[in-house]
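Hi L.,

As promised, Domain of unknown function at the cortex 1 domain-containing protein:
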Amino acid sequence: AALQASSNASNMPPWSSCLLRAPSAGGSLPEWMRSCTCRDADEDASPGSSSSRSQKMAEELALAQERRSRETVTKHAAAAGQPSVLLYSVVDSPAGQAAAKQKPSTTAATSGRCEAHHVPTNATRGVPIETSNFVGEAAWMLVPGGVHESAPQDMVGCPHWRHFQGRRRLWEFRIQGRFKRKPEGELHVGITLRDFNYDQAVAAYSRAVKRLGLIFVKWKFYLSWGDRCKASKAPDAELSHLVTGLTGLDQIIVTPAGESPPPLTEEMAGLGVERKRLGYDKYKKEVGNIAQSINTRDAYTFCFWGPSPMIDAVNWQFRFGTVIPLGQFLEEWPLHFVIYERNQVEGSADPRHLESQKRYYVDLMFWSTGEEAITRNLPSRYNFSDAPGSLEAETAEAAKASVAAATDNARGRPSKEAATVQQGTPIKALLRQLLHSSRSNGDSASISTCEASSSAAASDEMSFGSGSEASDRAGWSRARVR
């Protein structure tokens, strides 16, 4: 826009016209830039000057992209209200088979910038998403402020307050759409750290909190800290994962081809297969049948809310009976909720989930608006864009109403969360015990340098990575706030 407004200005470089007619670029140097013949009148025509011009143009374009991206994500954060969650559908991330050859194989090392399309939270309808392997809609419904006090008046401004009334869940993910290709390997769903500083060992405090968190997980899963330090710089390095099969979802609805799937933001109780209604054993069997018959014709609706009472995404904290800030572990990086297919090399006993083995179907990146360091950091990696149509305006108005209602109803009422932290809990004592145990084993609670013991990290991963300490039965245990 700045280039367009001043295209006739005398101080504009001649090659600015190339930028004006250029498509959105996100990869390596595009063809239009390599073939551009624009040049300054006084520019030297000596050999190598063309390369210099191209480099200059590439740098200018990258800076312009980052500025636009920063303005966009800042606008989204302001419109969401405080506190809330920023959610983006990452489109065709370079992570995967090509990125696995990078050193390290994370999004930070790949050439080009990922496209990240805004998915406003608490929208009244599904927000369109599309990747190379999946097309459909996404919605994230959440309790305003992230605090559920069983008081309906606190949520009057929220479009989905009736959905949360009488329920303990703080949020619910919903994804609906069709597969563009039939999965050949096993599908996994969960959390991965696509953006993270892996040049550090795993701190003892992180291990202690992990052991505490696993008390509440009662099914098989795969957990890995990922490759760290020197190993993280190798080709096809593993990222951090906490994933499981489709049984980790709370509800799945299959709509046959030719029929209309249920509206994504309306009540879905009683539809499809639901773990709470069927019980885990029957649910696992039904989900196994669904996974085996996935095709490109039917529509699939995936709902996920199980850990929401314990993971307060709005305030970016764990709630295991006490408050544990997520930022202490993730630093200035977001989380990615992903659905991917893993094709393990035949005959390989390597349990790691490597990028070269994956095909991503869905990648939803999110973080709390209160984590300003994340908001500042990501525009250098992603091209952020608005949701289509009138969704931005609609959700901004709803957010204003929600914030106003929560503010009015909270006046003069003591904070239950504050009381919980001050009182202390048995879980808090357990965390101290686990941390003390980690220190006794020789781990440092505060130092996470690469000089830390790699053998400790390896044994820690093997204990939980196979799900050996998590029984294969129903659901997430409830964390009781006393």
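The chain has one domain: 83-410+422-465.

Thanks again for sending the construct details.

K.
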